[in-house]
Amino acid sequence: MKDYFHPTTSEYRGLMVLAVALLLAIAVGSGVYLSRDNHSLDSSQHFPHKEGSYRRQGLVGTREASSRQGRSSRYYAVPENEVETFAFDPNTADSTTLLRLGFAPFQVRGIYKYRAMGGRYHVPEDVTHIPGMTNEQWERLAPYVRIGRKYQYVAPSSRAKHHSLGAYVAEPSGSAELIGKARDTVRFPVKLANGQCISLNTADTAELKKVPGIGSYYARQIVRYRERLGGYVSLEQLEEIEGMPEGVSRWLQLDTSQIRRIDVNHATKNQLVRHPYLRVYRAQAIWNHLHNEGPLHSVDDLRPLPDFTEADIERLRPYLEFK
User: Fold this and answer.
1) pLDDT in tens, 204-257
2) 153: closest CA among 88, 215, 235, 222?
């Protein structure tokens, strides 16, 4: 019988060679690991990569500091465009000219949009209505604003007089000399003289453009807002139109005899929502009350409803009726 517990000489030698090979493999592997670990430790001591290492050790890497300084100079040392100041007409200046004058890109877009909708700058002070205009910017540009003659208002003292041949002859100080042909009153309407007024609630856009300071754009805005309101009950309501030029109310008079009212208990939801003083939330509150609790009897019944303040109720009083 073979003895499995007592290896032969050849088997013993084979086991010894295998054991030595395993020991060598373990030793080599351990050496590589220790070498890598020591190298990593030395690298972290001499060249720490995290910013926290610098802070903890109080060290500043020369190479990284110089690199940061280079990046900082690339990102922040950007030369600014020099702002120039020279005479310009805001009605005709192109975008390049406006940018050279120091207008921001969004201001240039606003000027172009205003001009595209028919708006014009008639006096230097109209430039103050440009979005984002600051006191510093206006004080710098004010002496250099030049309004072309065709955009200026016609002064009452120099208003063109009708010629017997159908021509308009302007005084020497007038804004135009139209000899031999009639004035184009559609493009350049004759402005109202001092003391003249028009009715705010009945004037059309052509009449409104006769008001000094009002061009095609604001004439349309006045009519559109009047339709949405149902008529103006106060001249101060013009201030609710964004950008409305100041001082135009002196040329307007008010007649409130034909204010259009909304019959709250029979109005559609769209009619309620369209009114500027109701809009979505207040219209929804009225609509919910009508369908859940029944009709309203007066404007004072709006007080318990959500989103209605005392000021809202007073503004709505001339525009609502309850049948």
Assistant:
1) 999 999 999 899 899 999 999 999 999 999 999 999 999 898 889 999 999 998
2) 215
What residue ranges of the chain have pLDDT lower than 50? 1, 39-41, 43-62, 65, 72-73, 75-78, 157-181
> Angle CA(129)–CA(118)–CA(148) in degrees, nearest 5?
70
Alpha-carbon distance 310 to 286, whole Å? Answer: 16
Global pTM reads 0.46
Cα 256 to Cα 254: distance, rounded to the nearest angstrom: 6
pLDDT at 15: 79
Is the domain of 202 the same as that of 239? yes
Task: Note whether residue 159 is domain-resident.
Answer: no
Q: Which pLDDT score, from 0 to 100, does residue 6 have?
A: 63
Distance CA 45, CA 94 (A): 61
Nearest Cα residue to 299 out of 313, 286, 278: 313
123: containing domain: 95-151
Rounded to whole angstroms, the Cα distance separating 170 from 186 reads: 18
Q: Is the residue at 279 inside a domain? A: yes
- The number of distinct structural domains making up the chain is 3
pLDDT, residue 36, reads 52
Same domain, 299 and 254: no
Helix extents (H) in the chain: 9-46, 51-57, 62-76, 95-100, 105-116, 135-141, 205-208, 216-229, 269-274, 279-292, 310-316
Strands 320-321 and 262-263, bridge-based pairing: parallel
Do 222 and 240 have their domain in common? yes
